[in-house]
């Protein structure tokens, strides 16, 4: 109703009477009129000619708006903001007046998000930043408080702080002025230092650019302005608020930032190193907020490699603290943050995973994360239900993430996780939840658990996890696809009972399309999964794969810039070219292209592994009945094989030797011709040389080959 | 060192002495000075032992235990971890008990290392050992660690807790009141043969910790410094640290604080301290502020009234503008009766009771019997008036009890010794009596030779009935070997009319010098106490002995009569038996049942009588303050109180303390700070002193508590408990 403004008062009055039926409508009508009228009066007084009266007006306004959202909205609608900003910016105004203006503006910003938006629309930020140049401390503090309130609002874009390069250095300079400037500036920094990548916690499955397109990210800007040195000493401030805000600032600065983290370890304040100060802040009698935030700092530093994972401050302090944060006694928000941070901390270290898994029954404790909203909360009170609902998704995804980290490496832990009540059902349900965050975390968890051979054969099969997984893979964003396809890779392993049904549900098509993705990880996972699928597969599947992939795509992949993709593609080829009938069949249809590809790779600049893999493919081809001829008729290839037999690398020599021995194998048709041809090429001499080799493998192989000639 | 020495003295007869008891307790001052009674001299090494072993029954093991430096380190750490524990009353576990273990257990390295020495064929060969002492409730949070030196053949090791008397041929956890965490399967056993999956397994090289949280009665374990989560809830009290082994080669080492713990237990304790503090801070007081104050005042007042501190109570009431429920005369009457009992003049007390509260004893035959038994004991002691009247002098102070409040139970009890000599010494030492005591000083004996002969003859005259001649010679020998001090006191008994000499005074001075810790007591009083050390049956008077025998017969008859009317009563029987047993010894004070003669035994009788009187007047038989203390002592029904108490002992942000102390007038403040036995109850004292001596401080203390609004009723109560005792002498001295 307030949006209607003064002119539409008459129209809005009936509305008031409707919604406040429990009061006397007349009284409310009057009070409503009175409020708006008085608001008008406050604004009018800002335009008084007497500066003293203006000041009094602002002070009265200040008292009127405190804690009164309606009054705030009224004043904004009535246009108080531009006038206040004008007064604030006016050099001729007394500092007292300017300070009071900043206070009122700060008070207005405390209201709803709409208030903040209105203030931003009036360009309040440049005006306040300008105010920071004033010599008057009181005024500066008022401006900072107002800026702080605006910047911590989610509607304010963080970039507004970085539009002018001089602002940051000026803020750094102001840090020494008073405990209020310290508190507010730290708070501004910690809210205006957002990471460029979207996910809030850990799980860097991909190397993502730390720098965004527009230049250095916020962390780097602040770091380059000496944030670490300027803020470090605030950690030992006498004021709790200052300490806390400085700590928060560091937790944001150091998050996934090796540069900041490495610097932090060596900074000392009053003769104490920062890690020691953080550890003190972890003490159990410190406020939870402080424990949690300093655990985050230490976690970032540990992940950045600045602190070893077996350091006692991680093993005996940070980890137990984070586990405590997951306990039922903590608030839901704290539990979410605690679990996410812990997941990040232990993600890559199996020893930390083992310790976490036995600490305070963490695995059982996490099961509780799935019990929101509880049946009790639904009945007893609506407020709590609302609160639970709001956090339910967050809780579930945090638990999935932590389970994923816990089970990443250790088979026993995976077993314990799966044995937790209804665990597989929860994951399956999680895979089809509406919240993408939960789905993603559930897939991660599934991926982590799918590394267990035993689980693949048992619980994964019992719960038919492949079904929801395939569903997740349809039209999912890349981030999700990456994890889901990795999981699929594991499910497609030869011994996995899920393999068949997955194939039947059109996995080949899906995986083939993944190999065409722009995203490297997806290409790797796609071709990897195909490789797994082709391992000891039947003829039909192999043909399907080849058909689905198309030879063009195969060549595309063989010329991929990424060695991983190349390796997996070669692996796929090798798996396709196994058992004699398959080899002959495939070579009869795609022989030419494959031989071309092989030549190309053997000629190209590739590392040993790639060449070895290629030679193995040749050896497989040489095993075919008809396929042999493709090699024997290709002198170029034969020369290459000969070359690799005398290569300096034993692995390549061995692979080439496989090729030769397959070609000269006695019992097969036409072996005599092949033996003769190869003897003419001088292969036998090389074999004799190799039979004297110091490498027992090579030696053996060469001797067996020579025996084929003797027979 | 001084403290240690004091404890050592207490250790002679009252092992539970030591730090100031919470309640006024009569403490015979001259008693311990008797040379004949001292079982061992107070030497340097003796006192050290007392400090290190903390009254442990196994003092002999100290020789095998680690060196004194480590012992000191242990004591230091234990004091830091459990500041609230009074280690003289409730010693902390420091080693495994060589007595409380199964045969298959071997102990070494100062009873810290446990190894298995049985066959280990099956579970029937399991063996456990308990620590020397149970975990004191005052710990709040208790922790110990066990390092697995070797897992032996199968590693069937259990670490946990068990109550006294639980079968030691078992692993901890298998039986009722027994709890354990087992290494082979990582299961927890909660008084059951089947375990629950709990934590990881443990084996050679692991350090397993066990933490008992006595605040919420739970227990959790740690492995190599990592908490494994709650294992048991609803634990009973008085559990002992326990380990059990089952197969050959199993060896574990305990750490009760000898070494730093792997797990950061202090951090855990800090968390709980903070938790309790915030509970207290958040406790809603709101509009009921005024009520709290009234309740507090009422509690203090009722305590004072209950114990008959008449004038203190009146002063308190005046200051706080409150009224006392009970009438002045009634308080005074009770006070008089109590004093009689505490002075050992039970016969008079019974008479007075019958006169003032007719019908009371008739309705309480048990109480009457208890009183009569005590009267008999006092006759043996020579204190009761029925025997005293036979002695040469008339009991001068008999009817001249001062009405002053200075007769607290503690003071009153001191009189007993004076009477035991049959002397005419005044019973107490306030203004009125001081003149009398001067008189008596002037009558003190000077001659030694004659008195010594008379004294040596008196024992033989006493040993008239059961005792044979050998006995009497023994006692004669005894008295003749006594040193000069003894003969001094002997003289006193006979030579009343001789003018006082230099000798007596000087000896008194020496004694005072030795017993500095009794400073609180006025010198004249203590000098009299000191002077009486040789006691004789019924004061050594033959007629009195006759009367005693007669009284004994009457008592026997009363017992039989009660038995007929109310059926058999084993308590009565025991009481009677104990009392009569006194006569079987030539020196009843030094016999197995001699404890009865201890004036401290008058207290329960006195309390019972007082309660009965109050009950008959429809007044609470126990002051609320005492009730609260009782709850605290049982660390029980009232969780808040328990927590608050721990909180109190664990220290309090000293800002408020300082604030309050500052509000006190300077001399009082000094006294408060100086007199306080517990550093942590500084605030308590301040609170009370400020409350009571409000003329000077205008209730600043309570005003402060209102302003900050953080004070919780219950811990206020605890503060009061802690400080009432400290406060009383203050009040007296202020008046004096």
Automatic annotation (TrEMBL), chain A:
It is found in: Cytoplasm; Nucleus. Keywords: Cytoplasm, Nucleus, Repeat. One of its GO terms (cellular component) is nucleus. The keyword Membrane does not apply. ARM repeats lie at residues 79-115. One of its GO terms (biological process) is proteasome-mediated ubiquitin-dependent protein catabolic process. This is Armadillo repeat-containing protein 8. It comes from Anser cygnoides (Swan goose). The lineage of its organism: Eukaryota, Metazoa, Chordata, Craniata, Vertebrata.
Automatic annotation (TrEMBL), chain B:
SUPFAM superfamilies: Concanavalin A-like lectins/glucanases. SMART domains: CRA (SM00757), CTLH (SM00668), SPRY (SM00449). Residues 394-437, 473-486 have a biased composition (Polar residues). Residues 1-75, 391-508 are annotated as: Disordered. It comes from the Eukaryota. Residues 1-12 have a biased composition (Basic and acidic residues). Residues 74-261 form the B30.2/SPRY domain. Residues 59-69, 442-472 have a biased composition (Low complexity). Transmembrane segments: none annotated. PROSITE patterns: B302_SPRY, CTLH, LISH. Residues 330-387 form the CTLH domain. InterPro entries: B30.2/SPRY (IPR001870), B30.2/SPRY_sf (IPR043136), ConA-like_dom_sf (IPR013320), CRA_dom (IPR013144), CTLH/CRA (IPR024964), CTLH_C (IPR006595), LisH (IPR006594), SPRY_dom (IPR003877). PANTHER family: RAN BINDING PROTEIN 9-RELATED. This is RAN binding protein 10. It comes from Anser cygnoides.
């Amino acid at each position: 109703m307030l949006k209607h403004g003064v002119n539409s008062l008459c129209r809005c009055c009936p509305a008031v009477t409707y919604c406040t039926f429990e009061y006397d409508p007349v009284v409310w009508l009057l009070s409503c009129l009175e409020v708006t009228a008085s608001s008008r009066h406050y604004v009018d007084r800002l335009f008084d000619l007497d500066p003293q009266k203006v000041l009094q007006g602002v002070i009265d306004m200040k008292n009127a708006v405190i804690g009164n959202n309606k009054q705030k909205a009224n004043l904004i609608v009535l246009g108080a903001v531009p006038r206040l900003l004008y007064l604030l910016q006016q050099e001729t105004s007394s500092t007292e007046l300017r300070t009071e203006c900043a206070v009122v503006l700060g008070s207005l910003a405390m209201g709803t998000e709409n208030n903040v938006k209105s203030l931003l629309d009036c360009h309040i930020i440049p005006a306040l930043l300008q105010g920071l140049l004033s010599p008057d401390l009181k005024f500066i503090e008022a401006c900072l408080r107002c800026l702080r309130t605006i910047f911590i609002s989610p509607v304010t874009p963080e970039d507004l702080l970085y539009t002018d390069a001089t602002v940051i250095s000026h803020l750094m300079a102001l840090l020494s002025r008073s405990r209020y400037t310290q508190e507010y500036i730290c708070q501004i920094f910690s809210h205006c230092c957002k990471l460029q990548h979207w996910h809030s916690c850990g799980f860097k499955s991909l190397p993502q650019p730390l720098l965004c397109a527009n230049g250095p990210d916020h962390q780097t800007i602040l770091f380059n302005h000496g944030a670490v040195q300027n803020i470090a000493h605030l950690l030992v401030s006498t004021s709790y608020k200052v300490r806390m805000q400085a700590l928060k600032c560091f937790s944001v600065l150091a998050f996934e930032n090796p540069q900041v983290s490495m610097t932090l370890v060596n900074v000392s304040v009053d003769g104490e190193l920062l890690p020691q100060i953080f550890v003190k802040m972890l003490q159990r009698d410190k406020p939870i907020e402080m424990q949690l935030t300093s655990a985050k700092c230490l976690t970032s530093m540990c992940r950045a490699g600045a602190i070893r994972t077996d350091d006692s401050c991680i093993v005996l302090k940070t980890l137990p603290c984070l586990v405590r944060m997951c306990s039922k006694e903590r608030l839901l928000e704290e539990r979410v943050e605690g679990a996410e941070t812990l997941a990040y901390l232990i993600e890559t270290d199996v020893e930390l995973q083992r310790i976490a898994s036995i600490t305070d029954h963490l695995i059982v404790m996490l099961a509780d994360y799935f019990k929101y909203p509880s049946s009790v909360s639904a009945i007893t009170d609506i407020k709590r239900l609302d609160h639970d609902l709001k956090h339910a998704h967050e809780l579930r995804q945090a638990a999935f993430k932590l389970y994923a980290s816990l089970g990443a490496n250790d088979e026993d832990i995976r077993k314990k996780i799966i044995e937790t009540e209804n665990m597989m059902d929860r994951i399956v349900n999680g895979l089809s939840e509406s919240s993408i965050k939960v789905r993603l975390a559930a897939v991660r968890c599934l991926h982590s658990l799918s590394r267990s051979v035993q689980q693949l054969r048992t619980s994964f099969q019992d719960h038919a996890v492949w079904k929801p997984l395939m569903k997740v893979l349809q039209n999912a964003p890349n981030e999700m696809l990456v994890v889901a396809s990795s999981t699929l890779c594991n499910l497609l392993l030869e011994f996995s009972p899920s393999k068949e049904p997955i194939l039947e549900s059109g996995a080949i098509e899906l995986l083939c399309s993944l190999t065409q993705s722009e995203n490297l990880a997806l290409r790797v996972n796609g071709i990897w999964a195909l490789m797994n699928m082709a391992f000891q597969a039947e003829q039909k599947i192999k043909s399907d794969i080849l058909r689905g992939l198309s030879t063009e795509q195969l060549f595309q992949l063989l010329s991929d810039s990424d060695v991983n993709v190349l390796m997996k593609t070669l692996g796929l080829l090798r798996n396709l070219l196994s058992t004699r009938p398959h080899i002959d069949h495939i070579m009869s249809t795609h022989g030419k292209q494959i031989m071309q590809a092989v030549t190309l790779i053997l000629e190209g600049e590739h590392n040993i592994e790639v060449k070895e893999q290629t030679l193995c493919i040749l050896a497989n081809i040489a095993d075919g009945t008809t396929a042999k001829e493709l090699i024997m008729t290709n002198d170029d290839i034969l020369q290459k094989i000969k070359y690799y037999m005398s290569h300096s690398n034993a692995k390549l020599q061995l692979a080439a030797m496989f090729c030769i021995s397959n070609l000269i194998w006695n019992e097969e048709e036409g072996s005599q011709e092949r033996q003769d041809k190869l003897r003419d090429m001088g292969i036998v001499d090389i074999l004799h040389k190799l039979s004297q080799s110091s490498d027992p493998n090579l030696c053996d192989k060469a001797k067996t080959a020579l025996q084929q000639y003797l027979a | 060192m001084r403290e240690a020495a004091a404890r050592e003295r207490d250790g002679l007869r009252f092992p539970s002495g030591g730090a100031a008891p919470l309640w006024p307790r009569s403490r015979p001052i001259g008693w311990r000075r008797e040379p004949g009674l001292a079982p061992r001299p107070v030497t340097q090494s003796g006192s050290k032992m007392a400090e290190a072993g903390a009254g442990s029954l196994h003092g002999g093991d100290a020789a095998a235990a680690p060196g004194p430096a480590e012992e000191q380190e242990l004591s230091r750490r234990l004091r830091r971890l459990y500041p609230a524990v009074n280690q003289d009353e409730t010693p902390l576990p420091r080693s495994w008990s060589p007595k409380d273990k199964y045969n298959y257990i071997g102990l070494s390295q100062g009873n810290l290392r446990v190894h298995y020495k049985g066959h280990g064929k099956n579970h029937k060969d399991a063996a456990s050992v308990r620590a020397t002492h149970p975990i004191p409730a005052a710990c709040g949070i208790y922790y110990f660690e066990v390092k697995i030196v070797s897992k032996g053949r199968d590693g069937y090791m259990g670490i946990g807790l068990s109550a006294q008397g639980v079968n030691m041929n078992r692993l901890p956890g298998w039986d009722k009141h027994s709890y354990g965490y087992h290494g082979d399967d990582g299961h927890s056993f909660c008084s059951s043969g089947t375990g629950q999956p709990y934590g990881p397994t443990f084996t050679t090289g692991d350090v397993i910790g066990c933490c008992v949280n006595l605040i919420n009665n739970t227990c959790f374990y740690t492995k190599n410094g990592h908490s494994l989560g709650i294992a048991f809830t609803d634990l009973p009290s008085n559990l002992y640290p326990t380990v059990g082994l089952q197969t050959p080669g199993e060896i574990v080492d305990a750490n009760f604080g000898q070494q730093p713990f792997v797990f950061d237990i202090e951090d855990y304790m800090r968390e709980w301290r903070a938790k309790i503090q915030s509970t207290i801070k958040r406790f809603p007081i709101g509009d009921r502020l005024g009520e709290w104050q009234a309740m507090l005042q009422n509690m203090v007042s009722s305590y004072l009234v209950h114990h008959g501190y008449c004038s203190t109570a009146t002063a308190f009431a005046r200051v706080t503008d409150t009224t006392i429920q009970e009438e002045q005369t009634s308080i005074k009457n009770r006070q008089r009766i109590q004093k009689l009992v505490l002075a050992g003049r039970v016969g008079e007390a019974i008479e007075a009771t019958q006169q003032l509260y007719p019908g009371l004893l008739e309705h309480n035959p048990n109480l009457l019997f208890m009183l009569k038994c005590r009267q008999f004991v006092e006759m043996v002691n020579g204190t009761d008036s029925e025997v005293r009247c036979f002695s040469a002098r008339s009991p001068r102070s008999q009817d001249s009890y001062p009405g002053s409040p200075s007769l607290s139970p503690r003071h009153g009890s001191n009189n007993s010794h004076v009477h035991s000599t049959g002397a005419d010494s005044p019973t107490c030492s306030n203004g009125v009596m001081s003149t009398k005591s001067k008189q008596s000083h002037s009558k003190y004996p000077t001659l030694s030779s004659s008195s010594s002969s008379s004294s040596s003859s008196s024992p033989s005259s006493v040993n008239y009935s059961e005792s044979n001649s050998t006995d009497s010679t023994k006692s004669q020998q005894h008295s003749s070997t006594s040193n000069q001090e003894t003969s001094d006191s002997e003289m006193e008994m006979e030579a009343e009319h001789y003018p006082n000499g230099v000798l007596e005074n000087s000896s008194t001075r020496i004694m005072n010098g030795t017993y500095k810790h009794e400073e609180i007591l006025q010198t004249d009083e203590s000098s009299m106490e000191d002077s009486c050390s040789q006691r004789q049956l019924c004061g050594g008077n033959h007629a009195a002995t006759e009367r005693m025998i007669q009284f004994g017969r009457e008592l026997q008859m009363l017992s039989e009569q009660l038995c007929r009317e109310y059926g058999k009563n084993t308590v009565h029987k025991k009481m009677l038996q104990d009392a009569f047993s006194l006569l079987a010894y030539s020196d009843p004070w030094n016999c197995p049942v001699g404890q009865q003669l201890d004036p401290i035994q008058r207290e329960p009788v006195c309390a019972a009588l007082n309660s009965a009187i109050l009950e008959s007047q429809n007044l609470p038989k126990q002051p609320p303050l005492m009730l609260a203390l009782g709850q605290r002592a049982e660390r029980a029904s009232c969780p808040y109180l328990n927590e608050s108490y721990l909180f109190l002992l664990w220290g309090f942000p000293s800002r408020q303390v300082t604030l309050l102390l500052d509000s006190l007038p300077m001399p009082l403040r000094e006294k408060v700070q100086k007199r306080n036995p517990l550093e942590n109850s500084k605030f308590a004292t301040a609170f009370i002193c400020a409350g009571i001596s409000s003329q000077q401080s205008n209730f600043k203390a309570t005003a402060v508590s209102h302003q900050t609004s953080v004070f919780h009723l219950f811990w206020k109560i605890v503060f009061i408990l802690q400080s009432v005792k400290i406060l009383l002498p203050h009040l007296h001295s202020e008046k004096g």
